[in-house]
Amino acid sequence: MPSSVVxxxxxxxxxxxxxxxxxxxxIYDYKNVPEEVYQAMKTSFSKGIYLNKHIKGxxxxxxxx
Length: 65
Fold this sequence. Notes:
4 strands; 2 helices; globular
């Protein structure tokens, strides 16, 4: 299902980094995210709610320029 907050996401298995590209154009890399968490977000009904509940505040992140 399309998200009103998350435009796209990509998971790098080698570095366990979840890149989230927001509809606003902002890009964040979340570090050391287990693949199961990425898979659960990918299949969640609301990507934005999942992100806020299970990723933000739980994993280190950095804004990508």
